[in-house]
Write a structure and sequence with these properties.
The chain is of the alpha+beta class and 73 residues long. It is 21% helix and 29% strand. The chain has one domain. It contains two helices and three strands, in the order βαββα. Strand 2 and strand 3 (52-56) form a beta hairpin.
C-alpha cells in the first residue's frame, strides 16, 4: 500500500514528506483471545519526525482476509 501523498504537511514539524502503509490489529473479546487480526488501519507517518496518524479501513475485504488470518494463526 505504500504510496506518495503530494499534499501532505506534518502537523508537528511541517515536513512535506510522508510514508504510508497498513497495519492489522486484534479487536476485543473473541478475536483478542484467538489472536485474530480483524481490525485494519491505514497510516500516514512523517518521514522527518515520525509523527503518525491512523485511519480505519472501510472493510471491503474483511471476509476472506479474516479466513486467511484464522488459518495462518
Amino acid at each position: 500500500m505504500p504510496s506518495e501523498n503530494l499534499s501532505y504537511k506534518c502537523p508537528k514539524c511541517g515536513a512535506l514528506e510522508a510514508e504510508t502503509g497498513e497495519i492489522r490489529t486484534t479487536g476485543g473479546g473473541f478475536s483478542r483471545y484467538m489472536n485474530l487480526q480483524n481490525q485494519k488501519f491505514g497510516y500516514v507517518a512523517c518521514a522527518n519526525c515520525g509523527f503518525c496518524e491512523f485511519y480505519r479501513d472501510s472493510g471491503k475485504d474483511k471476509g476472506w482476509k479474516t479466513v486467511l488470518d484464522i488459518l495462518s494463526n
